[in-house]
Amino acid sequence: RPRVLSGIQPTADSFHLGNYLGALRQWVKLQDTHETFYSVVDLHAITVEQDPKVLRQRTRVSAAQLLAIGIDPQRSALFVQSHVPEHAQLSWVLECQTGFGEAGRMTQFKDKSAKQGSDRSSVGLFTYPVLQAADILLYQADAVPVGEDQRQHLELTRDLAQRFNNRLGKTFVVPEPYIIKDTAKIYDLQEPTAKMSKSASNVNGIIELLEDPKRSAKKIRSAVTDTGREVKFDTENKAGVSNLLTIYSALTDRTIADLEAAYEGKGYGDLKKDLGEVFVEWVTPIQERAKSYLDDTAELDKVLAAGAERAREVASKTLARTYQRIGFLPPV
Ligand code: TYM
Q: Model pTM?
């Protein structure tokens, strides 16, 4: 079976609908066809300041949400990144293969460090994409399911894998991004030309999986749309409506054309009201399952420990091979 690796940061109290539709939904589906490794990437989270207690809590909440949406720990190795020390170890080796300018060109780094000011940005924020490359290359992943915003990081990962292979002999599989075009970028409900993001300035623009579903339905009903009436998919002139159609289509597996036909002669209000209901119905059982995983953290921690053990079996082999290629003297 081909391999898949992906990760998500435990940096919010809840995942949002962009995370789910852009990436996590694919994580679940790929379990049927691939050998899957999924990580809650806490090492990445600390590239910006975190409160220790909050980070620990969010790491568990993240894992619980992944189980709740259908990540099956029998089929997937579900683990916390810091439980597998090989990630940090391979990252160091890859950092030494990465150009300073090359890392400096990463747009996510440029955006984040511009926001924080370069004196307040950590060196870890700069090397963040190299750690991400280590995550992927450790598992010899063939495919990496992510949203559009991760494309550049995957390009870097591919470059690093190829460079290492060319210099020191075939060591890493060169991974392909797995980005589903229709849902690769979900937009903010209040600002439908901007990506839905946990750092959004207006909380009404983002739909959280763990918030009160009534609140989500209300956010959907008050989503920003244009002044027209017709429910049509037209990203240029109807960004807001198009985003709602994308979400509606993804949650129901109905095509956009089918939805357009169904809302012919009706207004945006009907679309929003119905989508709110669709969302509530979809998210309610997910919330119940997440809650039950969080009611038994001892069991949850056991699942994560087993995931880490499986991950380490693969990761340690890749790291040993990499160390040997680089010329490190093996310990006896
Ligand atoms: P993170 O934690 O920011 O987001 C997790 C996943 O959600 C996707 N995503 C979106 N997709 C569509 N529309 C949106 N509005 C939207 N917002 C977020 C992201 O593309 C991502 O797939 N650097 C990664 C975490 C990471 C990783 C990895 C991913 C660390 N190591 C190895 C893949 C492989 C990140 O910050 O994702």
A: 0.98
Q: How far is CA 21 from CA 10, 145, 180, 298, in A?
A: 17, 11, 9, 29
DSSP of 266-286? --HHHHHHHHHHHHHHHHHHH
Instruction: Work out the number of other CB atoms within 10 angstroms of the CB of residue 290.
Output: 24
Q: How far apart are CA 145 and CA 203, in angstroms?
A: 26
| Cα(23) to centroid(ligand 1), Å | 7
pLDDT tens-digit map of 33-79: 999 999 999 999 999 999 999 999 999 999 999 999 999 999 999 99
**Which protein residues are within 6 Å of ligand 1, measured from CB?**
5-9, 18-19, 22-23, 41, 44, 132, 135-136, 144, 146-147, 149-150, 153, 184-186, 195-197
Beta bridge partners of residue 4, listed in sequence order: 36, 143
Q: Which helix (H) or strand (E) segment is 251 a member of? A: helix 239-252
Cα–Cα distance for residue pair 96/232, rounded to 1 Å = 50
Q: 14 CA to middle of ligand 1, Å?
A: 14
Active-site positions read 112, 195, 198
- Maximum C-alpha span of the chain: 76
Residues near 88 by Cβ (< 8 Å), separated by ≥ 6? 43, 131, 134
Q: Among candidates 91, 85, 93, 170, which has minimal Cα distance to 326?
A: 93
Q: What is the pLDDT of residues 281-292, one digit of tens each?
A: 999 999 999 999
Strand blocks (E) in 172-324:
176-178
Distance CA 74, CA 88 (A): 26
Tokens found for residue 163: 């460079």
Measured distance CA(5)–CA(7) in Å, rounded:
7
DSSP output for 81-145: GGG-THHHHHHHHHHTTS-HHHHHT-HHHHHHHHHH-TTTS-HHHHHHHHHHHHHHHHTT-SEEE
8 Å CB contact between 153 and 110: no
